[in-house]
């Protein structure tokens, strides 16, 4: 029987199978085969951090396929990626196979290769090793840390700061960096200063500029000329004087090439030069790593792209040096190979830098196999790697001092010229504000300085008289620190030693997905929600969002991976203090939170008015004081005279940007009339609220019993453009849920719904989430039938309970199947299939482990009046989550409270927290 080799991706499996031939069966794990279940109790500190692992359906399927291939085989090679995550995947695969009894008589080996080439793969197979236990333990510690922070800190946020999404160990630190930079910008006070520059002619009439450096015998500091009057006085002094060359200083400097790419420098340079986001860069790099077909064989074009090492193999260096000599000539080749060492904090130089696998495949040659963004990224990687082994560039720098006879007024002219271009012939490293930013309209101070350095001065000699051509003054203002771009934030995180190469892209994406930050002109701008979360965490959990503390944890994880620390000891030390910090917030009052946030963010929400008026004075009652308030689903600004004064205003509203630029229309005051409902004759309006934009039918009123009534409302779906909302679209939103049609074969009714986590359709016990390209308001019957074709039922009726004759169901929840009888629920044992449960087993489990679902608070009155039964699938979905969250049963939804969405949907957010 052939030996079995396991890699992560099917594309890689196909390539490697060609390299190894019929003696091997190569299978893919499709990444991780199991993970911590996203529910409380998956990591148990009280049991010395015991961890439960759970495989999803895909993971179980892949492991079964591997186990089947191992029948009769003698060796199993685990060839997942050569990093901490790859080592963990191999460990999971081996452990699952061992538990299934599939490794009897099978020798298990771990192999790694940094590039997908035939030579590298065959060499790896010939040199296997054991699984790296310290690396696996470092993975376990990191996973446990992230899980415990997410599952402990996020619920505190939800209780004490409504409207927040989640907190993460590294994510929250990155958010703090962005928010603190924004706070610096807000308090920044621009200072005025002036410069004086003259244009001069040499004795032979060659022009050159020079800037004033000394005035009235004093060297000028930046703010010495801080008014136009002072600048004009200095200008007149220059115009009245006669200048000669006081000194000419020339020196030759060398500029060395940058090191080949690591993950973070690749992300930074791709952002600056190509305008690519971190995730797009890593996705394209993955494709280049897995390879393309060349001459009938799939070949990886670059080495592994997740690395913080800058070294290259000796063979690669020699190949690049040979290429430089043949392509550019011996003058461009340094006498000895260049050796690089990373400057990044906590770097693990375990892998090579990102480089081409074959330097002979030049970008112009690769153009026949790849194109577009792939080719541009390959060209960037190829040029950087080749340039790293080229000769240094040499520049002749010249500084000329102009003086007048008294010596009280002096000017300086700077210039440089490239004497030998060296590596600059092939590659120039961009500054942070580079071509991509210039295309986006972002000014570059570094670019101006570079222009000065590249200026060439005409020949001059000491004592030579020069003629003043003209003199000008220029007004300047100091600039605030720039907002972080993706490139500069990754660079800063790397400098601080927080996060790892494989995590940067996902961290930046999570911050945007949580709507904590947004990208504006390629720069991160914190949303008010993000600033509130940061202010809360800094106020009450400052230690755990401190970059220094987070960096220290990364160092401890590196000690674990290097065998210098025991992972459970690290976890115990962390949990001792962290659990106490969480416990201390139980008595924290919402009023304390409001006061602290109001104090920290007051200058942001209530900036000083130009007219000198109190920015906190309530515009409605003219007596109350505006301040931060926390509602059930988020923060808003409210009056201190509540309930007498009910003035409120939102902190931030999606879609509010762009007012006054032709897009606001009559919606600028927060409301727009869309038309009249033809059925009821009521006005339909679109409005802004504290939590977003919504459409409303009619106005509040009084019913026959004298009780106030609320108008029907529907929030705009994510991605909807407020300017594109018509009367028809508003009516469609207000009419949800709607009947799509009858199934052509089964004759059952298909319904479209709006859920808290997106639109979905149902038919009987089946439900299916819509794809992002589907429009729930106009979804047709054919598409609905196609979506339901592979939908799984939410529940099955096991039978009737022998005591009361009511049905006993097994339902599919977000965290696994569970039993339900009336309002009593019970989890099924792990690994139990829904279809395998018998009535006797169900009755026994409900009696032993069943729990009663408490009623929802305020559940009455929320169900849509037109079709109350149609919202039931939402409630069922919520019920499926309730049993899994054992630590907070009071949040579990009641069976018949379908529309109480904020409470019914708590569980999924918990699941997301563990991944943050």
Give a structural overview.
The chain is of the alpha+beta class and 916 residues long. It folds into 7 domains: 3-131, Rossmann fold, CATH 3.40.50; 140-186 and 505-590, Topoisomerase I, domain 2; 192-256 and 394-477, Topoisomerase I, domain 3 (Distorted Sandwich); 263-391, Orthogonal Bundle (Topoisomerase I, domain 4); 606-650, no CATH class; 665-735, no CATH class; 795-916, no CATH class. Helices cover 34% and strands 21% of the residues. Helix 5 runs antiparallel to helix 26, helix 8 packs antiparallel against helix 15 (486-496) and helix 9 packs across helix 12 (372-387). The chain is globular and about 115 Å long.
The appropriate CATH architecture of the largest domain is Distorted Sandwich
- CATH structural class of the largest domain: Mainly Beta
Query: In terms of per-residue confidence, which ranges show pLDDT below 50 for 5 or more consecutive residues?
Result: 432-450, 652-669, 856-916
Question: Tally of extended strands?
Answer: 35
Order of adjacent strands in the largest pleated sheet: 7-8-14-13-10-15
Provide the CATH topology of the largest domain.
Answer: Topoisomerase I, domain 3
Shape: globular
CATH superfamily of the largest domain: Topoisomerase I, domain 3
Count of structural domains: 7
Structural class label: alpha+beta
Number of helices: 26
- Beta fraction: 15-25%
- Mean pLDDT score: 81
Terminal CA distance: 43 Å
Major beta sheet, specifics? Answer: 6 strands, antiparallel, barrel
- What is the helix content? 25-40%
Quaternary state of this entry equals single chain
